[in-house]
Amino acid sequence: MSREGLTRMTKIEVVVEGTEAAQVRELLQEAGVTGYTAVSNVSGLGHHGYHEGRLLFNDQAALGLLIAVAPDDRVDAVLAGLRTLFGQRSGVVFVSDVWVSRAEYFTS
């Protein structure tokens, strides 16, 4: 598949503690991001040590991953909110350029 007919956008991936996932979802919605994918019980090794997913009956203690794609003009608002959140809590954000089909799905 070529990039012909695709639209450049920005992908935001956020890894946070389960207790912070709702705040990240709110940031995305307030910035006008039209959707996201949430993955709970994420495992990984990072600055704060190893985090194990699949904690039975407790998705608040596990890590969550939220993935969103948005036009560039909506990303700075999300990043500003995440900087504030990460000043108080642990977490990480990855930002990358992506090419999408159906660009209208990511704008409203």
Share of residues in strands: 35-45%
- Please identify, by name, the CATH architecture: 2-Layer Sandwich
What's the CATH class, please?
A: Alpha Beta
Rg, alpha carbons: 15 Å
Distance between the termini: 26 Å
The amount of helix comes to 10-25%
**Strand adjacency order, main sheet:** 2-5-1-6
CATH fold description: Alpha-Beta Plaits
Q: What is the tally of helical segments?
A: 2
Low-confidence stretches: none
List how many beta strands DSSP finds: 6
Structural class: alpha+beta
Specify the overall morphology: globular
Encode the helix/strand succession as letters.
EHEEEEHE
Major β-sheet profile: 4 strands, antiparallel
Give descriptors for this structure.
single chain, 108 residues, alpha+beta, Alpha-Beta Plaits, 4-stranded antiparallel sheet, two-stranded antiparallel sheet, 6 strands, globular
Q: Can you walk through the features of this model?
A:
Helices cover 23% and strands 38% of the residues. It is an alpha+beta fold and 108 residues long. It has a single domain (14-100), classed as Alpha-Beta Plaits (2-Layer Sandwich), CATH 3.30.70.120. The protein has a 4-stranded antiparallel β-sheet, covered by helices on one side. It has a two-stranded antiparallel sheet with strand order 3-4. A hairpin with a 2-residue loop joins strand 3 (44-46) and strand 4. Helix 1 (21-30) runs antiparallel to helix 2. The longest helix is centred in the last third of the chain and has 15 residues, at 72-86. The radius of gyration is 15 Å and the shape is globular. The relative contact order is 0.32. The model has no long low-confidence stretch (mean pLDDT 87).
